[in-house]
Amino acid sequence: MDIKKLGKYSRAPSFFFVVGSLTLLVCIATLSKFYSLRTFVISDTFCNFSNPVRDGSADKYMKQTLDTVIQKIKEEINNTRDLPDESSHGPRFSAFLVDILGMIELVQESLPHIDTSELQNGEPHAVHPLVRRKQNSDAAEYFLIEEIRKYVRIKPNRLRKQNFMGANGTFTSIGHSCFIMKKELEEYMDYDIGDICQDDWRLAQKLMVHGCDPLPRRRCLSRAPQLYTKPLPISESLWTLPDNRNVRWSQYLCKNFSCLANNVTRKGFFKCADCFNFTHHELPRWIIPEYQDPSSNLTADFLITEVLDLNPGEIRIGLDFSIGTGTFAARMREHNVTIVSASINLGAPFNEMIALRGLIPLYLTINQRLPFFDNTLDLIHTTRFLDGWIDFVLLDFVLYDWDRVLRPGGLLWIDSFFCLKEDLNDYLESFKMLRYKKHKWVTIPKIDKDDKEVFFSAVLEKPPRPF
Ligand SMILES: *[C@@H]1O[C@H](CO)[C@@H](O)[C@H](O)[C@H]1NC(C)=O
Ligand SMILES: *[C@@H]1O[C@H](CO)[C@@H](O)[C@H](O)[C@H]1NC(C)=O
Ligand SMILES: *[C@@H]1O[C@H](CO)[C@@H](O)[C@H](O)[C@H]1NC(C)=O
Ligand SMILES: *[C@@H]1O[C@H](CO)[C@@H](O)[C@H](O)[C@H]1NC(C)=O
Ligand SMILES: *[C@@H]1O[C@H](CO)[C@@H](O)[C@H](O)[C@H]1NC(C)=O
Ligand SMILES: *[C@@H]1O[C@H](CO)[C@@H](O)[C@H](O)[C@H]1NC(C)=O
Ligand SMILES: *[C@@H]1O[C@H](CO)[C@@H](O)[C@H](O)[C@H]1NC(C)=O
Ligand SMILES: *[C@@H]1O[C@H](CO)[C@@H](O)[C@H](O)[C@H]1NC(C)=O
């Protein structure tokens, strides 16, 4: 009699426990769903654990919590078994607990195995998420396509020694948005090793533009134009439309260069619809200023000679971060300045065009740190790229990165940046923040759009930093 009563009472708190553990389970399930992303996306608001364990050790904490929950459920199952089973609740309750136990253990299984001894001595020893697990890594596990898993995994050096660069392995990296664009990336990486790749550069570019950048490398043979003709000699190539056969046109509206150059078709990128017209649009750029309104002297254009004369003979190498066909680099070449043209293929084969002109295309999105070392370039020029669309914080990151690669005395040429009038001051603040010497600085109204927009151009010089 007494024992029965006791049994009844002892079961009461266990229901509270079950409710509690269910809540926890839901919490853990949510976490584990986002688990693969967690090292990339700060998500410590999902579950506000009472014990505030910071980012790196959160995994361990989760594991510890799971262990505790499992232990408690096991104890509870033991207790329930010990109860006299005349009550109908006993077996049902027990079965319920076993069920939950199975689910939690499944979640635990899907976690990377963490040495809990590390946990005890409390040292927050940072372990790379991709090496935590001996055979498999969680980021690799996230993808279903074997080629992605193989690519993402850290490749230890043979002989298990450091290589000449001082690294224990090779860390092939992918952009964090690759995890968000799982489906597209899996489509991109689904190929037969050694075979011809799909005609999917557009998918690749889409992935890159959306932050899956760097994109994994592939082990298939890229497609090439069917009949590639010899490029023109440099004396001709700079100002001649190349052979149409040297470009793969399948993903473009235009199927030849004359279509792109013709201002009737306008099938290229809208910001650069006439960039392929060498004879008219491109020829005078940076040689003759363009006036929006012929009746006034207002222009945001500076001439190459004006800019080079600021520091004669000092400008030898630089970067043009624009959308275009490389005309800036072509003109600078005439002044013996080597310019690398960063561009992506928005609606037209800009990279192929730049290369066929005999200039260097750099296929690069705005997402990445520039692949140049600090204090190396003499000049950075930009036009038609950073405009009124750009987020202020992003602009800051971009400008500081440009500052990093510019050498002291190097020039930053902002060419016809345009934005809404009301945004101008905020953008100008960003440019001023670099505290560069102002060689040129003009703001003029942009005439087309109801007078709501303005052009801004500047040539700025990075000061020496003697510290
Ligand atoms: C998390 O819990 C702490 C107290 O443990 C509290 O101060 C904090 O506001 C909570 N944060 C959120 C996002 O709930
Ligand atoms: C449950 O009971 C069995 C034997 O009755 C025992 O071996 C086991 O350690 C107990 N488990 C827990 C978690 O108490
Ligand atoms: C590289 O390996 C050595 C020896 O195996 C080890 O002592 C060192 O900590 C490792 N370095 C890194 C960065 O993992
Ligand atoms: C170029 O393409 C356009 C339409 O895309 C076509 O009308 C024209 O005939 C083509 N020109 C050449 C030279 O192939
Ligand atoms: C370039 O533009 C001019 C006028 O804007 C046009 O007459 C000429 O045909 C264009 N060039 C090509 C190759 O289409
Ligand atoms: C081509 O563009 C120029 C100016 O960019 C314009 O004057 C001319 O009328 C255009 N030609 C055609 C056929 O649209
Ligand atoms: C533009 O400038 C030139 C010389 O710099 C001058 O001769 C001309 O009158 C100016 N035109 C206008 C419309 O101001
Ligand atoms: C470029 O270099 C060549 C060869 O060194 C020289 O003949 C030419 O005058 C230079 N051009 C300019 C604009 O400096």
From TrEMBL:
Belongs to the methyltransferase superfamily. PANTHER family: S-ADENOSYL-L-METHIONINE-DEPENDENT METHYLTRANSFERASE SUPERFAMILY PROTEIN-RELATED, S-ADENOSYL-L-METHIONINE-DEPENDENT METHYLTRANSFERASES SUPERFAMILY PROTEIN. It is found in: Endomembrane system; Membrane. The chain crosses the membrane at residues 12-35. InterPro entries: Prob_Methyltransferase, Put_SAM_MeTrfase, SAM-dependent_MTases_sf. It is a single-pass membrane protein; Single-pass type II membrane protein. Gene3D superfamilies: Vaccinia Virus protein VP39. Pfam families: Methyltransf_29 (PF03141). It comes from Daucus carota subsp. sativus (Carrot). One of its GO terms (molecular function) is methyltransferase activity. This is Methyltransferase type 11 domain-containing protein.
